[in-house]
Amino acid sequence: MTVQQAPLRQRSVRYVKGVGPARAEQLARLGVRSVEDLVWYAPRRYEDRSRLHAIRQLAPGQVATVRSHVLAKSLRRLPGGRTLMQAAVGDATGVLECVWFNQPYLDKFLRVGEDLIIHGRVEASGRRLQVIHPEIEHLDSTTDDEQESADLGLNMGRLVPIYPLTEGLNQRWFRRIVKTALADETLAAHDALPERLRHAHHLPSFAWAVGQLHFPDTWDDLEAARRRLIFEELFLMQVVLASRRARFASRLKPQRYQSSGPLVEALRNRLPFDLTFSQQQVLRELVGDLCQPHPMLRLLQGDVGCGKTVVAALLTAVVAQGGYQSALMAPTELLAEQHARVLRGYFEPIGIAVRLISQGLTTKQRDTVMQEIASGKAQVVVGTHALIQGGVRFANLALVIIDEQHKFGVVQRKALVTKARLPDVLVMTATPIPRTLALSLYGDLAVSTITQLPPGRLPVRTVWYREAQRLQAYEDIRQQLRQGRQAYVVYPLIEASTRQDLKAATQMARTLQAQGFPAHRVALLHGNMRSKEKDAAMRAFVEGRTHLLVSTVIVEVGLDVPNATLMLIEHPERFGLAQLHQLRGRIGRGGFASTCLLISDTADELAAKRLQAFVETTDGFQLAERDLQLRGPGELLGRRQHGWMRFRLADLSRDAGLLELARQEATAEVTHHPEPLKPSRS
Ligand code: ADP
Ligand code: MG
Questions:
Q1: What is the pLDDT of residue 679?
Q2: 273 C-alpha vs ligand 1 centroid, how far in Å?
Q3: Vertex 605, ends 601 and 638: CA angle to 5°?
């Protein structure tokens, strides 16, 4: 791989001929600061100006590009303060009417007799043809004739790029500076992809690709150029991840284990069920990792309810048997408590000490727990992010398990890992992630997936009711409660209006108790309750003392109450698919048939599509793929945390195939050429 003199990234656009300080500032608003930004700044579309349309041949409904001149124009004020700008434009074959509302400034830009390119959708208006809000581009230059003639090759007679620009920048000027930047001969030396790869996958050179990205010779060339550039982006990301993976895996850890032994056997024998085939397989993978001399760094994926906890428990048994400590970190207090409860159930009878760090502890209790962690007496330690806070010292922490990984920031994950010298790390998530995102987000991890649910689970039936059918929904709930089952009613909470939403949930709980379900006990659970109250409410529900739990979204993650068989979700249109899926995962956990009810009259098309998809499938991975298509990766991941995954051209919801290839090649590159790659961009 060749390294360039001055990377494009470091060269300011200021040094491109034609860009002065004022222009540079405007470009910065587009995110274009360096020459690299400029050459990667992709057109939003292209116009085929080698084959312009003749006005006479246009038909309503057609999206057309015509070259014409302005015959007449008028600007009128409409009642209500709106303005109407009209222009008649013509070519040798006919006349077309252009219409703009509320763009009075166009009056200055349009001059009768001037040549224009018009682009837009043609519509019939009486017997005439018109285009509403066409895009226009001037072809005459009144300022710089010489430059104009030089530009003609960029603006006419070819596939012409149309850029997403802000006000004050025009297309022709932008094309010109792009062309100037592309002419820089150092571009030819700038190629982040190893020759080997370009050859193997028929990837054109960088210089050619960026040239074609802006001024493609044919549509096919454009496609080849884009493919090459997208591959480059994905490859460079994957190289970073693969190097991280390799660096981690090259270290030797102090802890050593045996895959079997009395504690592990004792736990296995105590389990009230057989592990599913998939759980066994994954467990073998994980224990295999533990027994390696290198630290484990693995993601355990599995749909809600597939039984990740017990697999994690068996892993901690291996560690405890080896004489080391494990830490299990959960995203909420409730979930940490649930884990502690489950693990105590498994471990106390066989003499493994489980400790919970929670806010509920008194200072004295907390001190005791801290001491036990520091002395090594506490073999399995469960907690929320409290686990990574300064005060907690472990004697010999060797395994770190992070549940519901997506709920934690990257920073927290790192902080816990630094508590131990070279711990084995397992992160678990029940939020199915489309493979493309998993490879990007967790590309530095090995991945195991539990693909099976425990036997006897009945798929949850999902019904979408309209508001008018609310009473039917209540009747459905009543039926379940009468049979001794329990149910959830879930309210979304939206930060901006927390108080109001809380009021809605609180009121709903009251109304349901008084009017809807006087014979049963209705309880309320929401995020603003004090942790003791939350606990009490939760425990009452887990123990079956309350029957209908009206809750905000905090039941979302991990909660396990097998007797709950119905969930009514209010305002389901406010939730994302992943969240809905998590919520629904709270029911259908026992041997009983379960139902998820949605009540929504949403008029939002996208939301309706989400709900429809949710009704149609219970497969978390399918839903995740659907979510990715509907929302795009940015929103799915949350912009803030994953800003580094913003690509210039790549789109994770579209480029799955190239991503796979990039991952393979990046892994091969890092394995065969372990010296750090010096990509010209990163
Ligand atoms: P998740 O993977 O969503 O964290 P859990 O670990 O909470 O799922 O498990 C869900 C429920 O399934 C628990 O009640 C657990 O005891 C039960 N379970 C786990 N594995 C099995 C199995 N192999 N057979 C039967 N039930 C199981
Ligand atoms: Mg779980």
A1: 47
A2: 9
A3: 105
